[in-house]
Write a structure and sequence with these properties.
3 helices, alpha+beta, three-stranded mixed β-sheet
Length: 91
């Protein structure tokens, strides 16, 4: 699934008993400070959202990868939250 600034892919992974999150933020997004800010925000959103039903309906041990696109560094926390929530709902 994708949005204006993110693409989210989920695939079955090794059966570890929990989901794994991978985050890809290229240099095209911005400076190291901007890339790290985007990664921190994505991790925080995943941490608060993983308790909800959508992740529990996925196969146990699924790998979830979030790929950031250009312009993601200019998004505020609320916009990132809404875009990722919409992507995760469509998985």
């Amino acid at each position: 699934m994708h949005s204006a600034h993110f693409m989210v892919v989920a695939a079955p992974g090794p059966n570890l008993g929990h989901h794994r999150l991978g985050i890809m933020v290229s240099r095209k997004v911005g400076s190291a400070v901007a890339r790290n800010r985007v990664k921190r925000r994505i991790r925080e959103i995943y941490r608060t959202q993983k308790k909800y039903a959508k992740f529990e309906t996925m196969p146990e041990g699924a790998d979830i990868v979030v790929v950031s696109r250009r312009g993601a560094a200019e998004c505020d926390f609320k916009q990132i939250y809404e875009e990722l929530e919409n992507c995760w709902r469509k998985l």
